[in-house]
Amino acid sequence: MQKLKPSKVTLALLASGFAAMSAPMFAAAQDAENKAQQDVEVIEVKGFRRSLVESINAKRFSTSVVETISAEDIGKLPDSSIAESLSRLPGLATQRLDGRASKISIRGFGENESGTTLNGREQVSISDNRGAEFDLYPSEIMSGVTVYKTPDASIEGEGIAGTVNLQTIKPLDQDGRIIQVNGVIEKTSFEKLNPDGENKGHKATFFYLDKFADDTIGVAFALNTMSSPNQEKRWNAWGYPEFEQDGKKYSILGGAKPYVRSSELERDSMMFVLEAAPRDDVRMTFDALYVDFLDKQRLRGIEIPFAWGQGTVSANSVDDASGFITSGTTTGQRVVVRNDYNERDAEMKSLGFNTKWDVNEDLHLDFDVSYSKVERKIIGIESYAGTGRGDSRGEADTLTYTFDGGNTGAKFDHNLNYSDYDLIQLGGPLSWGWSGPLNDAYGVKGTEFENQLQDGFINTPEVDDELKSLKFAATQAIENDFISAVSAGISYRDREKAKLSEGYFLTLSSFSYPSNTGMMVVPEQYRLGNADLDFIGMGQMVAYDVNALIRDGYYYGLKESKNDTSHKIRSWTVREQVTSLFVKADIDTEFADMPLSGNVGLRYVRSEQSSQGNATSINEKGEVVVASTDISHDYSHLLPSLNLTLKLDDDQTLRFGAAKTISRARLDDMNASFGATYNEKPDENGYYWVISGGNAKLEPKEAFGLDLTYENYFSSEGYFAVALFHKDISNWPFDDSYEVDMTGVANPKDGEIPPYSNGIANGKVNGSEGTLWGYELSGTLPLNVFSESLDGFGIIASYTGVKSDLKSPEGFEYKLPGLSESISTFTFYYENHGFSARASMRKRDDFKGDINGIGYKAVQVDIMGETIWDAQIGYDFGEGGFKDLEGLSVFLQGYNLTEEPFTTLSGDNALQVRDYQDYGRNYSLGFAYKF
Asked: β-strands 674-678, 594-618: how paired?
């Protein structure tokens, strides 16, 4: 078989815009180019195949173990989102959030254990924690992505799983002026599930790049707008309590909240890059990214109490094997008809400036400064309707549930007509909202209407995340038989993230005791028709515009934080000031007459963290009382790293990596907000304070990792690799109790500093240990290695197996969030003569993941494994020989073609389905035109 070496084209690509993604990969590409002095065969490929060649070569010539994605062309990453593209990389898996791939796991570690950088700089996050939600970043204006599975000392991103680096384009590395427009229309396979929802959307991108002043100034500008629909039919269960039948105990449905959701993700993005090279030895780059993100959701459904309800419950059928009542009936039960609206609004700004100066041939200086900020606001509106106010008024129903086979949830039989606006009226049909301040506000305390005035609810959590960073580094070339260069640097970053939580009880503004205590018919002008709940057997239900009702004054709001401590506990500020020093030596030598390269380094990290929050309690009147808290902590880490690459021959490479890494604690665990009670008498252990909540002195999780990889590049378009990896994990946080010093903290009940400050706290504590290990098989097989007649056909595949044995302090098994024991990907593609087609599959086993719970608090649940198929066909008219249409290409994409659901469980029984979310399929039809 003929050996195909990297072509000058691919080496040039590596040394230009694509390789400019990071200093380590740029240096590796330059080194590879310098070594490739001999004439090699030039292989001309474009489109998707070109992106594969670029990605393979970036992996091949990197000094670390990496996976990369390259855009097929400007604004054309291989998928509709960065997360979708990342999910096809070996060892990576995504968790869907409302039908969209959003959160990334790397080799068994969840999104909070990996770092995310943009052009090498750490980024803020719109979530409550650190993990990036990649649907924030527009794939249309990114040039590539690199995932570092093994670090080196110079990389800024922190994470025991790895670092994901997003890259924007470098204008001076391009050939010349580029003007391009892209357009896409989208459609979901479901018709509109809500009368005011959307099942069609669009995307549009404008891109401009040019060079001026004898190619010493380069400018790139991209503008992207998107309105993307997503729909869902969801079964949601409250839980499954015990129920006695014929003297035996079974589990039964406690209650359910099935609904239909219609969402539109609106995102406007702008990217700007300005590069200047006033001299051959100086290059300056300014880049800016702005994203305006708005996710709107309309949700309508019926909340149905069952075993936890007011009705008389009986079992109809029992599955003895699982101990589960598969069908039951409740008589005399009232339900809550829900018309809800959620809005997640975020604005992100990211600015960076970098200067590289080649002082001479051997000394290179690098200066970088950056700023990023995100502001996120959530509005979660719940609106209730039913047949009468409270538990005992209005017509009750008889409802029967029957569970479907598999994990799809249940269907109901019912008697009432839930689409009847005269029957289903605005107001709280069950006695929710047990609030003393709410009762007092309407004068119903001690009356029959006490605790019956919650006609709806609004959650309004906000997050502000701000990050400033500064870095200076120097690289000195060395003439040595072992070391080719030494780099050293210092960096500083200051990050402050604040969360403010609040909620409001909604009560109809028409309510007045005792004159007007009833429900209210939905006014005609706010009626939207009906929403269809046939998928769970509930037929049609009333649909109305809750936003307009609130805007026009039909509801009054009262803060929940007046009598509920949870909002103050979920409100906090965390600040981290991190100073890092690093030194790294690039290795370039021989071992057993084989080239040996890589790097060895040491990174010192000094962290000063502080948190301001609330110590909360309830006084004798049932009111929330608050005392401010301010807790600081500091620590340091030494993080050694080693990367070795042994070239067995021109095509075969053996890699070894060893490194100590850290992942910082979750912000909702390490803040200074907690419930606090001061007792005048100590407990049996002598503690006066009892605390429950955040631990502001949590330190990072630590891991020492080993990686061994064999890579074989048998073709310019093909390779296969076998990897083994192992991580020793320590300092993992678990729930436990620990001593606290409350010196200077006032007793929330009276605002006075108490005489004793010692306390016992319940929360997260560092200390648990364990290991994670696994293997990875990956490869790309172009079928032209078998026959030239198969040129253009190819297969991309990977399989990752992961195990862990992390245990809690009590010795119980603990499953890492994000860990699927097996992950596999498969893509079959064809591209030639302008025509392209590919079908892709990604599969992962069961795992634990975070979803939004009550009050938008992150809740960890058991998520079932899934297999997702996507496909795409396209045509490039220029490559197809239509010269008059040079620059025009079209494509059709289909996502989730097998309608794979997102399913979570409430227990070990597969019938105890918590969530069953059916998103249907999504289709996109688009074009790109390059002038």
From this structure: parallel
